[in-house]
Amino acid sequence: MDIREYFRLLRLHWVTLFLLTVFGAASGVALAYAQPPPYEAKSEMIVTASSRGSDLEEDYQGALLAQKRAQAYTPVLTSDAVLNRLIKDLNLPYSPDRLRGEIRAANPAESAAINVAVEDRSPQRAKAIADGLGPALSATINEAESSDSSVRVTTLDPGSAVARQVPRSTAFNAALGGALGLLVGLVWSVLRELSNRRVRDAEDLMRACDVPVLGVVRGRQAIREMASLPGGAPSEVVEGYRLFALNLQSRLPESGDHSYAVASPRGGDGAPCAAVGLAIALAHSGQSVILVDADLTSPSVARLLKLSGPEGLTDVLTGRLPLDSALQEWREGVSLRVLAGPESSPGTAPAPTVLRQNDLIPLCEELEQRADAVIFASPPVLTGADAVLLARVAGQAVIVADQNKTLDHEVRRAVHCLRNIGAPVLGTALFGATHRRDRMGNGAFGQAGYDTRERETPPATPHTARERAPASAPFDPDHKVAAVSGSHFRFDDNMASKVNREAGHGL
Description:
Layout: H1 3-34, E1 39-49, H2 56-76, H3 80-90, H4 96-100, E2 103-106, E3 113-120, H5 123-144, E4 151-156, E5 163-165, H6 170-195, H7 202-208, E6 213-217, H8 220-228, H9 236-251, E7 259-263, H10 270-284, E8 289-293, H11 301-305, H12 313-317, H13 323-326, E9 328-331, E10 334-339, H14 357-370, E11 373-377, H15 386-394, E12 397-402, H16 408-420, E13 425-431, H17 436-439, E14 481-484, E15 487-490, H18 493-506
Parallel strand pairs: 6-13, 7-11, 7-12, 8-10, 8-11, 12-13
Antiparallel strand pairs: 1-3, 1-4, 1-5, 2-3, 9-10, 14-15
């Protein structure tokens, strides 16, 4: 992971990292208050060396000897010999190692003094240990050295040690707990980032396959808001779909039929909602648009646009109703007509369960004569053959991924399936964006559509079923650059070959 991916990780998981850091700091403070407060008792010893003469030189030599012995006796104070004697004398419930952790001994520079500090949860025990260290050290030294030694260890003010409560280290515990919480959060975030295959933002969508991201748009509630606005009203929702429409139009061939299928890999609200928002955006731009709800199992376009009436696609395909009678005008003054999904009415034959190419080809040609753009709200690509057939008849497709629901390998498989039958994939779109960074031009694309100067070659005119395309259309390797004003996403040769290999393995 590079530095950009770590920043992205922080952006995606900052709430978890913040909560774990706060929890760790709070746990550290709680632990500090839950334990009994420690007490500290201090004592001081002095090493003396008696001289046999009375002149100054011998006194000086004695003082130097006392300093050296004080320096040598300081580590002896926490030796097993002294501590075992002390444990026996005071009947302490400690081992030598445990007692050693409670004692701090220091010899100030150029002095014969030994300063001792003892820390214990019991104030009485801390005082007893501080008072008993001097006699235990003196007795141990007397046993080890000759009886006529002139060096003595004396405790200053024996029995006067006072145990004082040590202030709780709440700040240290809070800092340590917060650091541990942050570390746990970072580890959790990295593991989740490596294991989570859901599409969360435009960067995930760009990594999933080698087609450009055409738009990042909001959810079902945004479609209702968009449908309630008058034409041309400024809105962040409308701008997102307008940008989607502009990017899509830049991918369409300059000559040929402008019809395409909008499909999701494996169901969800993404495809129908994106198709509806795209149709409204194109209609508001002055184009005449026909929106076809071709999802026979769960039609939802009419419900999203609040249209009523039993007539729909199946009535036209079965010949029960002329096309012009089945098309419904969405709103006065907006050139958007809708061919709704199937609704069985009393006394009519049941709707067909599958679409047939021989029925769709003449329908698509007739729709293209009546509008500038024909949009098919398609069923999912990976759950049946209808979506593949629609994309082949329309000639091109757009894949819509639902944020935090669609998996990256599902996007790759959907693109691979459509390419196998000769239907070019114009691009992808992320549906359900919740963050402002994803919705507007700070993420995968800018606010002025594609920068066509970055494209090496224009997209080729797609082969459709009406033109009797071969079973598989080769992918044009020149289309590796998806450049949009504000940010450019590039696929080099290594990345493109890697994505193609992963798509093959996913199938």
